[in-house]
Amino acid sequence: MEIARDWKDYEILDMADGEKLERWKDIILVRPDPQIIWKEKTFPEKWKTSYARYSRSNTGGGAWQYEKKLPQSWKIHYKQLTFHIKPMGFKHTGLFPEQAVNWDWMIKKIQLEKRKISVLNLFAYTGGATVACSYAGASVCHVDSSRGMVTWAKENINASGLADRPVRFIIDDVTKFVQREIRRGNQYDAIIMDPPSYGRGKNGEVWQFERNIADLVALCVQVLSDHPLFFLMNSYTTGISSKVLENILNLKLKERPGNISSGEIGLPMKNSKLVLPCGIYARWEKKGQI
User: How confident is the model at residue 59 (pLDDT cuts 50, 70, 90)?
Assistant: First the structure.
């Protein structure tokens, strides 16, 4: 497992009974997590410091319950990157801090290459990977079907001081966009995708991970350049192993010589040996880099 240990503005303070107690800079939140199936609180007193808790409803969904007044949004930093945090309707805050391990990996790959790298970021959300790749010097095409998420990603690019970098923001269905890029003959040196388990595009297009992911990867291979750098897949879909993603890359990229790896990503708990599993990844990378 790759563990995001380099955060200063984020940390898990405790986790127990289906919930994690998190510090987002100066704001402490309680959010549910299905991986936390043990009951014991390691630091019971710390739970009294939370600003807000997201509680699930028995009838589905959930809501934030506020113990202290929260700012509408605030900024946190990861190394040289800056992100806006905003509590959202479905427990999220606009950032997945465990993805820092992938940001570090991509930044290193791009900077070691010492050439212009073009990146296609699909299901790009609020742009964590877009910010990382832009910071590393790549040009990025950021694609997401949600106008609100794309606006948020622009805010993160600006907050990180990267407004002058070459980033295209596209509001579109991912599959349709890639199909058009194939017809246009556009190509990219690196592809990132973080597909949801289930979703709908802006025109009602239905996405289901198990049904659609292999076909999408096959499409994306057609927009890889002749000298690709990497292909990164993330998933939070329940029941899918990282080996499944690795198998898809092996099948769809078998004509491309490279190294393929996969695994879990996670977050450490402060002052503890506990680690929270947070998702899976698979990576194809060109041979020859360190």
Answer: confident
